[in-house]
Design brief:
Layout: H1 28-40, E1 45-47, E2 57-60, E3 72-82, E4 86-93, E5 96-106, E6 108-114, E7 120-126, H2 127-140, H3 151-168
Antiparallel strand pairs: 1-2, 2-3, 3-6, 4-5, 6-7
The chain binds nickel (II) ion.
């Protein structure tokens, strides 16, 4: 069990596409460390590349800040269906500290993934689950929230981010 260092944007690893895990690969220790890191951050989601692991996995828990923990580890996750209807939520990222931005995404998705014991799951997600899962899945394809907003908003937010980073350095 360990809290891992989280990479800060614009680390080039956050812009790369991750490779699938080998089916059956033992990542239980890594997953435990990723949960420790996410809870310590504190955050609701953490993807492999954010801790320098260029593999397709992420961990999420969208309820723990308000009450009970509901940890979900997603290995080789895939969106198998997405609604045409979009929903916009204010998103933040542990790799882009100090700024949040409105991101529009499908309001409902069906996600398929394997857990750390290599059991397959398929579930419809809405609300914070859908937002969080899509945000983390984006990380596995080298996409961050800056890439999901318009150029003008992005320029302002990048300046705010640089200032926040400077202030905390
Ligand atoms: Ni993020």
């Amino acid at each position: 069990m360990a809290v891992l260092p989280i990479l800060a944007w614009p680390d080039p690893r956050l812009a790369r596409t991750c490779t699938p895990l080998e089916h059956g690969e033992d990542v239980t220790a890594l997953v435990a460390d990723m949960f420790d890191t996410m809870y310590a951050a504190p955050g609701r989601g953490l993807a492999g590349p954010q801790v320098g692991v260029m593999k397709r996995l992420f961990v999420i828990d969208v309820t723990w800040k308000e009450g009970d923990r509901s940890p979900v580890a997603c290995l080789n996750p895939e969106i198998v269906a997405a609604s045409g209807e979009l929903s916009t939520a204010q998103e933040a990222c542990l790799s882009i500290r100090g700024v949040a931005m409105p991101v529009a995404r499908p309001a409902r998705i069906t996600l398929r993934w394997w857990d750390a014991a290599w059991q397959m799951h398929q579930q419809e997600m809405t609300g914070a689950w859908a937002t969080c899962a899509q945000h983390e899945l984006d990380h596995l394809d080298g996409t961050v929230i800056f890439d999901r907003v318009g150029a003008e908003l992005r320029a302002g937010l990048e300046a705010d981010y640089a200032a926040a980073k400077e202030a905390s350095a």
